[in-house]
TrEMBL record:
<feature type="domain" description="Siroheme decarboxylase NirL-like HTH">
    <location>
        <begin position="8"/>
        <end position="50"/>
    </location>
</feature>
<comment type="subunit">
    <text>Probably forms a complex composed of NirD, NirL, NirG and NirH. All proteins are required for the total conversion of siroheme to didecarboxysiroheme.</text>
</comment>
<dbReference type="Pfam" id="PF22451">
    <property type="entry name" value="NirdL-like_HTH"/>
</dbReference>
<comment type="pathway">
    <text>Porphyrin-containing compound metabolism.</text>
</comment>
<dbReference type="InterPro" id="IPR053953">
    <property type="entry name" value="NirdL-like_HTH"/>
</dbReference>
<dbReference type="InterPro" id="IPR050684">
    <property type="entry name" value="HTH-Siroheme_Decarb"/>
</dbReference>
<keyword id="KW-0456">Lyase</keyword>
<dbReference type="Pfam" id="PF17805">
    <property type="entry name" value="AsnC_trans_reg2"/>
</dbReference>
<comment type="function">
    <text>Involved in heme d1 biosynthesis. Catalyzes the decarboxylation of siroheme into didecarboxysiroheme.</text>
</comment>
<feature type="domain" description="Siroheme decarboxylase AsnC-like ligand binding">
    <location>
        <begin position="66"/>
        <end position="130"/>
    </location>
</feature>
<protein>
    <recommendedName>
        <fullName>siroheme decarboxylase</fullName>
        <ecNumber>4.1.1.111</ecNumber>
    </recommendedName>
</protein>
<comment type="similarity">
    <text>Belongs to the Ahb/Nir family.</text>
</comment>
<dbReference type="InterPro" id="IPR040523">
    <property type="entry name" value="AsnC_trans_reg2"/>
</dbReference>
<dbReference type="GO" id="GO:0016829">
    <property type="term" value="F:lyase activity"/>
</dbReference>
Length: 152
């Protein structure tokens, strides 16, 4: 995927610290010295090409509720079907296929641990698969971001 100059600047500047205001895309445009329409078109192009998965906040789960890492051992013939089922839950994010017996991994979030437990039971009932529940014991913070800078 080829990334143009505006896309590179947008990614580098706003992977973190998206403006919290009534018109965030206008504020982004001002910071990048371009138009709001250009920012929106750039974001749409990044999304349609697979370079952008979402725009939104990341919350500290222990302050906003509860979460756990979940893994399922999904038979290969059912992978697409089960992944679609899992993706229908609004409480699911970061759903990935991995090379392992437990091959489908996702993060499950909810308002409290009781909701997480109920969701795990529901997922098991709907998929026929037993979820591996891996709640976080400690957080080791990293500043997850991928500066891409100028084109080579």
């Amino acid at each position: 995927m080829q990334i143009d100059s505006l896309s590179r600047r947008l990614i580098d500047r706003f992977q973190h610290g998206m403006p919290l205001c009534a018109e965030p895309y206008r504020a982004m445009a001002d910071a990048l010295e371009c138009s709001e329409d250009e920012v929106l078109a750039c974001l749409e192009q990044l999304e349609s090409s697979g370079g952008l998965s979402r725009i939104g906040p990341v919350f500290e789960h222990s302050r906003a509720g509860a979460s756990t890492l979940v893994a399922l051992a999904v038979p290969e013939a059912q992978l697409e079907e089960i992944a679609e089922q899992i993706n229908r839950y609004p409480e699911v994010n970061h759903n990935y296929l991995r090379e392992h017996h437990y091959n489908l991994w996702f993060v499950l979030t909810g308002p409290d641990r009781a909701r997480i437990d109920a969701l795990l039971l529901q997922i098991e009932a709907e998929t026929g698969l037993v979820p591996l529940d891996l709640p976080m014991q400690a957080a080791y913070r990293i500043d997850l971001g991928f500066p891409i800078g100028d084109a080579p």
